[in-house]
Design goal:
Number of helices: 7
CATH superfamily of the largest domain: Galactose-binding domain-like
Strand content: 15-25%
Largest sheet: 6 strands, antiparallel
Shape: elongated
Radius of gyration: 26 Å
Oligomer: single chain
CATH class of the largest domain: Mainly Beta
CATH architecture of the largest domain: Sandwich
Helix content: 25-40%
Length: about 300
């Protein structure tokens, strides 16, 4: 173990205190997947710096092993996750992995630029790979949000991979990307090669959840919804739309019953009805935050294909 001077000890202690405050008491602004993933990836940066600070007292002892410091940094990360549980947050294995990547990056930078036991160019290359791994999820969500903005007013384009990133099965729904069968009878001008196929399974709201749609619908008049049913009978569905002020009561959102007939279905829905749907207020059309299409439990085992959804 390294010999800490009084000055070094206080330096490391303050670094630990600051890291604890940031990890337990800081939330990035904005409630979306990009901000959440950036906050998670912040573990990597914090533990990289923390490891470098903790290793600093070793700088004059080239023969001192650094693994005890790295082990203590990992223990600190595990204690942080335990503390998250105690304050009402969910501990995360993903966070621990990011802590490990940060500890590894700090150790490699220390060996490359302070102890000089590793070629600096090699240490930079390895750390860049670790950075890419740590920030892969925020990069994914950044691209997804850029694609969402670029394709607007189209809300869903199943042909684009990142357009499907914000589509999930609702409670009891399973969504998968499928190519359109050649024998489906579709309009000749429909430029679509695939769809989001929704299988209705056991659950409270089996269907599809379009999460975090582009929120400002004020400049548009209609919602265009294209659905194909490969079923032999009609399939009743419900379209639900809500805004950021939604109080999670039935009367405070837009709910519309749809009957999906076998084959191709095109719905053109006036947005003024969405705006007027809440019983005690007006829907904020600049802050739409969720769209869901779902069935009741009576139709478990059936399915439908969401071809497109957009505004006009």
């Amino acid at each position: 173990m390294p010999h800490f001077s009084f000055k070094d000890s206080w330096f490391v202690f303050l670094a630990l205190l600051l890291a604890t405050a940031i990890l337990l008491g800081t939330d990035l602004p904005g409630e979306n997947r990009l901000m959440y993933s950036l906050q998670d990836s912040g573990h990597f940066l914090i533990f990289t710096l923390l490891t470098l600070i903790a290793l600093w007292p070793n700088r004059k002892g080239r023969d001192r092993p650094i693994w005890p410091v790295l082990a203590l940094a990992l223990i600190f990360g595990l204690l942080i996750e335990a503390a998250q549980y105690l304050i009402g947050r969910d501990p995360s294995l993903h966070d621990v992995i990011l802590d490990l990547l940060g500890i590894a990056a700090g150790g490699i930078l220390y060996n490359g630029f302070i102890r000089r036991s590793l070629v600096p160019h090699l240490s930079i290359a390895i750390v860049l790979l670790l950075v890419l791994s740590a920030f892969a999820q925020p990069l994914y969500w950044y691209i997804a949000y850029q694609v969402r903005a670029d394709q607007f007013p189209r809300l869903i384009d199943p042909d684009i991979f990142f357009s499907r990133a914000l589509i999930e099965g609702s409670e009891g729904g399973e969504v998968r990307h499928v190519d359109l069968p050649e024998d489906w009878s579709l309009p000749a001008d429909l430029d679509i090669d695939s769809c989001a196929y929704v299988t209705l399974l056991e659950g409270r709201w089996p269907g599809i959840d379009i999460q975090e749609p582009e929120s400002d619908w004020r400049s548009y008049e209609r919602l265009e919804l294209l659905i194909y049913s490969d079923q032999l009978e009609d399939l009743p569905l419900t379209l639900r739309i809500h805004d950021q002020s939604h109080n999670w009561q039935l009367e405070d959102r837009y709910n519309l019953s749809l009957v999906i007939q076998p084959g191709y279905n095109h719905f053109s829905l006036p947005l003024h009805e969405v705006e007027d749907a809440p019983s005690r207020r007006t829907m904020d059309m600049a802050a739409i935050s969720g769209v869901m299409i779902f069935a009741t439990r009576d139709y478990i085992g059936r399915g439908f294909c969401l071809l497109s959804m957009g505004l006009q």
